């Protein structure tokens, strides 16, 4: 190994080195959490370039989040930086969605289409449902449920003409109608949704061999992280690019497979060695992340359900705190307060106004931590509300890793709509956002007229700008006409003012000239969202299209900033692949873990267990499991039982923390321990 250039193999153990330097051909790396899978993949890229002289542009690495992709690029760059002096091309490292958008853009004749983000997708689904209802078709399912199924259909590579029974059961006919209308609406605006990105590329590859071969030839080495979470579309994409015999390295942990509800299927992971019979399988056994008690507890949760042949026991040898801390509180508010108090203790806090922690007896805690050392993980986004509320009151800085909290914030949402419209890239929904924000007094009825006119005339937003104000809109009052033409001329003026500016300058210009600056200044959260957006814009210089593409593709973990001196609040799903010195899992209750299914979405208890396992294994040094005895769910207060998964952890590994609730605690008697 000493022969390898410039320390690419430094900081790897022998098993990891073997994985990094394993010869070409299909390679499967199966290993538990924190064993350095992602690190190994990064080093393998650098090794291919530095040692095997593979041109970087011939390497494709697919990761789970844009953030992971960026970190991987930076790591590879740093490792490669030691190898060469001159500038080099970089390997393609990105998510499946980003990769497919690039391919679609490159392969489309004009300048391709735009991507509807999550919020817009919901609006288009709602419009499709409205149109289907207008045709007299009864829809018992809610638009969100129908949207989920359209998404699922696409992940199963089913188009509207296919038999949709596998994803919709007896609602198949209804789904066909909504799905078809939905696709028409998207096509009218040359827009793709997330799932279209992958579906379209797979369709293209499978119907056009020349295109497929072009990309298969270009990406000679393909590496995929988190392979256990592939769905059919992603699997077929990888297959199309990697016919048998090609170097393909996939990495994963079947015990961390948590996306079944999005069509992921462990089958693809399992059949890797059948798909590629010459595949070499390697394992990594040493964990570098978590203290032993955390690993032991995690193992007790997964062991009888593990998909790993050896039950998945991994060791780190890291000595740490002897036990996990378990806290049971009367209500969700007192749970949030208890978490806040524990954090305050550990940062050595004194000056927080509303929490008095002198009586807490969270013993033996390190008291010099930074806020960024902590993550509070939960099953359901709804749980973040009360936690955020309590933290805000207590002055604990926090960030919520949720796409909507940045891109969906009032003010920011409209800012992006303006940027798109003025850049000729907007969708009808962007136009509607601007109309709503400007308080044109356009009621729902007028708005419906407007959208009907838009859809019936198959207009693009650009055409709207050209037509409105010049031609009267049928059925629209004079006042409304005037409002609209005012708006349109305002947009034209903005458009002129923006030309030649960088993305950052454009955003600044829009803020000042649309009244949005005032809207955003009204709330600290809006300001925080804007700050993050502007910071992201900085990286794009004058590339507005690139910026908008980034904005559309961001998902929950992408809006999370490692460097911020803040406590992280995120869902268990978003935390996959990440690690924190101190982790709280909030809501360790039956109903959250496992999550209570709905008639539309039955629970997969094993998957829920794996999700809990993912959460436990995010912790490096300390782990807190908290729960509330009573909680408001969908507006109704209910008693909550402890999560059955927690019961699988031996009591000797847990300390039951005596804790008193804040405010609520005064009304309720003090509770002792999770099992009391
Ligand atoms: P997950 O299953 O959660 O995605 P993973 O297997 O991808 O985990 P990594 O995130 O790559 O694991 O690594 C976990 C931690 O261990 C990281 O902080 C990483 O830097 C560290 N690590 C991995 N290998 C080594 C090593 N050989 N020496 C020191 N630290 C290591
Ligand atoms: Mg990883």
Describe this structure in words.
By secondary structure, the protein is of the alpha/beta class. About 45% of the residues lie in helices and about 10% in strands. It has 29 helices and 17 strands. Strands 9, 10, 11, 12, 13, 14, 15, 16 and 17 form a nine-stranded mixed beta sheet that branches. Strand 13, helix 27 and strand 14 form a beta-alpha-beta unit. Helix 5 crosses helix 8. The protein is globular and about 75 Å long. The structure holds adenosine-5'-triphosphate and magnesium ion. Magnesium ion binds next to helix 2.
Write a brief caption for the model.
The protein has 29 helices and 17 strands. By secondary structure, the chain is α/β, with parallel strands linked by helices. Strands 9, 10, 11, 12, 13, 14, 15, 16 and 17 form a nine-stranded mixed sheet that branches. A six-stranded parallel sheet has the order 3-2-6-7-1-8, with helices on both faces. The chain has a two-stranded parallel ribbon with strand order 4-5.
């Amino acid at each position: 190994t000493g022969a390898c250039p410039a320390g690419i193999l430094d900081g790897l153990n022998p098993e990891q080195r073997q994985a990094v330097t394993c010869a070409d051909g299909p390679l499967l790396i199966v290993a538990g959490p924190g064993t350095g899978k992602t690190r190994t993949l990064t080093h393998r890229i650098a090794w291919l370039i530095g040692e095997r002289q593979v041109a970087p542009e011939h390497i494709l690495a697919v990761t789970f989040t844009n953030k992971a992709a960026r970190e991987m690029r930076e790591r590879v760059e740093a490792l490669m930086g030691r190898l060469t002096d001159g500038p080099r091309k970089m390997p393609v490292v990105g998510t499946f969605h980003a990769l497919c958008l690039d391919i679609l853009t490159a392969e489309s004749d004009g300048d391709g289409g735009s991507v509807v983000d999550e919020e817009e997708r919901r609006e288009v689904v709602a419009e499709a449902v409205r149109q289907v209802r207008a045709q007299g078709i009864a829809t018992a399912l809610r638009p969100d449920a129908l949207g989920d199924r359209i998404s699922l259909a696409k992940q199963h590579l089913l188009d509207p003409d296919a038999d949709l029974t596998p994803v919709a059961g007896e609602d198949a006919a209804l789904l066909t109608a909504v799905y078809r209308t939905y696709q028409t609406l998207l096509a009218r605006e040359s827009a793709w949704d997330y799932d279209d990105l992958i579906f379209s590329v797979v369709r293209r590859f499978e119907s056009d061999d020349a295109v497929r071969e072009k990309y298969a030839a270009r990406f000679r080495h393909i590496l995929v992280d988190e392979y256990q979470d592939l769905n059919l579309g992603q699997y077929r994409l990888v297959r199309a690019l990697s016919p048998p015999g090609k170097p393909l390295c996939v990495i994963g942990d079947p015990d961390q497979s948590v996306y079944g509800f999005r069509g992921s299927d462990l089958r693809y992971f399992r059949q890797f060695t059948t798909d590629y019979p010459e595949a070499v399988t390697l394992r990594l056994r040493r964990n570098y992340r978590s203290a032993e008690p955390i690993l032991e507890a995690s193992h007790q949760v997964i062991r009888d359900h593990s998909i790993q042949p050896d039950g998945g026991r991994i060791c780190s040898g890291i000595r740490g705190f002897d036990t996990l801390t378990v806290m049971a509180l009367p209500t969700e508010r007192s749970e949030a307060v208890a978490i806040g108090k524990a954090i305050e203790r550990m940062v050595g806090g004194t000056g927080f106004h509303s929490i008095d922690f002198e009586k807490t007896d969270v013993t033996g805690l390190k008291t010099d931590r930074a806020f960024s050392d902590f993550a509070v993980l939960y099953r359901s986004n709804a749980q973040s509300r009360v936690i955020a509320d309590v933290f805000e009151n207590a002055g604990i800085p926090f960030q919520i890793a949720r796409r909507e909290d940045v891109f969906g914030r009032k003010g920011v949402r409209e800012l992006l709509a303006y940027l798109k419209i003025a850049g000729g890239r907007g969708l009808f929904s962007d136009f509607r956002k601007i109309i709503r924000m400007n308080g044109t007094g356009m009621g729902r009825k007028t708005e419906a007229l407007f959208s009907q006119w838009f859809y019936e005339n198959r207009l693009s937003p650009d055409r709207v700008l050209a037509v409105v104000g010049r031609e009267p809109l049928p059925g629209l009052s004079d006042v409304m006409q005037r409002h609209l033409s005012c708006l349109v001329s305002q947009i034209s003026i903005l458009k002129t003012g923006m030309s030649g500016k960088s993305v950052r300058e454009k955003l600044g210009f829009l803020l000042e000239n649309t009244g949005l600056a005032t809207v955003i200044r009204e709330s600290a959260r809006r300001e925080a969202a804007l700050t993050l957006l502007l910071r992201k814009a900085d990286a794009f210089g004058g590339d507005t299209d690139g910026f908008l593409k980034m904005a559309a593709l961001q998902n929950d973990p992408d809006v999370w900033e490692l460097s911020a001196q803040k406590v992280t609040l995120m869902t268990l799903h978003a935390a996959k692949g990440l690690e924190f010195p101190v982790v709280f899992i909030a809501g360790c209750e039956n109903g959250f873990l496992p999550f209570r299914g709905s008639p539309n979405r039955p629970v997969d208890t094993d998957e829920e267990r794996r999700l809990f396992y993912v959460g436990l294994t995010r912790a490096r040094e300390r782990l807190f499991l908290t729960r509330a005895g009573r909680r408001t769910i969908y507006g109704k207060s209910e008693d909550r039982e402890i999560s059955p998964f927690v019961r699988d952890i031996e009591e000797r590994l847990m300390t039951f923390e005596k804790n008193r609730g804040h405010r609520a605690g005064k009304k309720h008697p003090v509770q002792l321990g999770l099992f009391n």
